[in-house]
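We now fix the convention by which a protein and its fold are recorded. The integers have meaning only within a learned vocabulary of local backbone shapes. A record is reproduced here so that you can trace the correspondence yourselves:
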Amino acid sequence: MIKMLLVDDERIIRESLIKMIPLSDLEIQLTGVCANAFEALESISDDMPEILLTDVKMPQMDGLALVERSLKMNPQMETVILSGYDEFAYAQKAISLGVREYLLKPCTKQDITDCLTRICKRIRQRKETYLMQMNNRAENVKALADALISLSINDITGRIESGEVRNLIEIYHGESLIREVYTYMVTHYEVSPDRGFAMLREAYMQDDGYITLLASWLTHLQEHPSRRKREFVIKMCRYIQEHFHEESLSLQFLADHVVHMRADYIGREFARDTGQKVSSYLLQVRMEKAKQFLEQCDDEMYVYQVAERVGLGHNPQYFSQLFKRYTGMTPKEYTKKP
């Protein structure tokens, strides 16, 4: 819903406008109906409407002064001025303030509907553009953060230099994202919450130096990797669950084609986060899937077909051995169990 405030010092006009405006059709929520500009300013402060529809001639503070003050509170607010034919000077002033919609009294229901339809369209387009920009920004923040984490993981010197961080930031055009990237990385990967908050406080107390802080933090991450399951481990688990049937699936394959990190590192960290090796996890997934296939199959399904379905079709005998070791039964015995 789009929020709108209506302001007019004449009660009969306020009531008439409320009846004329198709609020539900336009998906507009009327946040307030005010008799003067002072009430309106208070309402704007509390409810932050997106549309202000106001009369021009009102006692104490006219509609243009209200518009001027309102736009200082919310520059994105759409404003509609109601005015008579003999108030051209007001129209000129309204235009100078950036008012794009001007309704002459007496106006019809169609006049108001057309005006508000245009405004609602602009507001929704603006919101969609903003959301798209925020989504793209969030994706860019994550991409740069992942690149920096990879830099830390693949570094063999034991110390990340500021120049390396600066080069990556330039590659990703992330100069405007540094603060958000730093916040994302500390909150997602920091091993100690207390230390993470302390680092955030340190960063926000200075206007620059984020590159140095990032380099320092990445070096710290090498020395103190997070104990919780990290995103690349989650990604590995998900990939194994979805591609267990592929015979080429292995630790090296995951390193080269899925997470793009060193195989020895992801193997070690996978075991640290999950409590089991990649090979054990892959075997577990394959055997559980094999059990499902055997439970669902008819008597015509052969062992080699199940082996193929779980990525072990190159050696059905080996599959049978693994299955018995895992379940205590051969595949044939498993299909005949009560």
Q: What stands out?
A: The chain has a mean pLDDT of 81.
